[in-house]
Specification:
The chain has 90 residues and is an alpha+beta fold. The protein is built from one helix and five strands. 17% of the residues lie in helices and 38% in strands. This is DUF1292 domain-containing protein.
Length: 90
């Protein structure tokens, strides 16, 4: 997958740009593996975002950060397989 960018608005109304490294679907739910744009330190930080099904009627998809440990572990395993040479750790 080519690196696409996605823009989020945080709680304070600030726009934050993320690079989408990979995407997958698990149990009919879409997930994105993203890193923050402009992170020159390359500290390996990432987020896994889950599409919010309750907003599927809207014009744009809404995503939430995956916080459930079991869900996070399952999705991380899929992303590690898709990216082959990447080892994701919480």
């Amino acid at each position: 997958m080519e690196n696409d960018s996605i823009v989020f608005t945080d709680e304070d109304g600030n726009e934050v740009v993320f690079s989408v490294m990979e995407q997958t679907t698990l149990g009919g739910v879409n997930y994105l593996l993203v890193t923050e744009d402009g992170d020159d330190e390359d500290d390996g930080s990432f987020l896994i975002l889950k599409e919010n099904a309750s907003d599927s009627e809207g014009e744009m998809a809404a995503f939430d950060i995956v916080e459930d440990d079991k869900e996070l572990e399952a999705v991380m395993k899929i992303f590690e397989e898709l990216l082959e040479d990447v080892d994701l750790e919480v």
